Amino acid sequence: MFRSQLPAVDAAAVPADAILLDVRENDEWAAGHADGAVHIPMGEVVSRMAEVPEGGRVHVVCRVGGRSAQVTQYLIAQGVDAVNVSGGMLDWEAGGRPVVDDNGAEGYVL
Predict the structure, then answer these.
(1) Per-residue pLDDT tens for 26-48?
(2) Which helix or strand (DSSP H or E) is residue 21 part of?
């Protein structure tokens, strides 16, 4: 499956109650992430597959969409209903969607 054929959705179109998997690195996550997202860095997804949320479509996000596209491709190959969030957390933040830091305060995208 080629990246252009991956299912994708713009950050603005991600439902408020969506399952969101953030695959950025720890420092990126700590600076700011979507409230309620699950954090599994890209390099740990294979070993932490049991932590990928079940029960609906998994919206995969990174900073701009490249890493999340790779993880989305892997998850689909594993039978997970996954979709890449185009534009990543940069578009999420630019669209006015809330970003929090590790303390629950207002965060920013690193």
Answers:
(1) 999 999 999 999 999 999 999 99
(2) strand 19-22
Domains of the chain in sequence order: 3-94 (3.40.250.10)
pLDDT score at 1: 45
More confident residue, 4 or 92: 92
Eight-state DSSP code of residue 33: B
Question: In the chain, how many H helices and how many E strands?
Answer: 3, 5
Residue 105's CB is within 10 A of a number of other CB atoms, namely 8
Nearest CA-CA partner of 21 in 70, 76, 49, 58: 58
Q: H or E segment at 76? A: helix 66-77
Alpha carbon distance 45, 73 (integer Å): 12
User: Rounded mean pLDDT of the chain?
Assistant: 95
Whole-number Å distance between alpha carbons of 26 and 55: 25
Tokens linked to 108: 């920013």
Active-site positions? 62
